[in-house]
Design a protein that fits this description.
Length: 85
């Protein structure tokens, strides 16, 4: 596994999470009225999911595990003994 690639993706994930934390209003009503906050949260949530999927794919390939379908990536983590955090 290319450690540098994973580290870059983790750093991107941290930035996405920080941005969502920074811009997400404290209650759903405020978020419902703030279109800009909705866009920021949606974009960063989408990026976070994609980064997580990409890291899972890198891990699967690095361990010579048969590639699962899109919904099977989390179960592959469990089979190879990676803990959930």
């Amino acid at each position: 596994m290319d450690r540098e690639v994973i580290e870059q993706k983790l750093e991107s994930l941290r930035r996405c999470l920080a941005r969502m934390t920074e811009k997400c209003p404290v209650d759903a009503e405020t978020l419902a009225r703030d279109v800009d906050a909705q866009d920021i949260v949606t974009l960063n949530l989408t990026r976070s999911v994609q980064l997580s999927v990409d890291m899972a794919a890198h891990l699967i390939v690095s361990r010579d595990i048969p590639a699962p379908n899109a919904t099977g990536r989390c179960s592959v983590r469990a089979r190879v003994g990676l803990r959930e955090e």
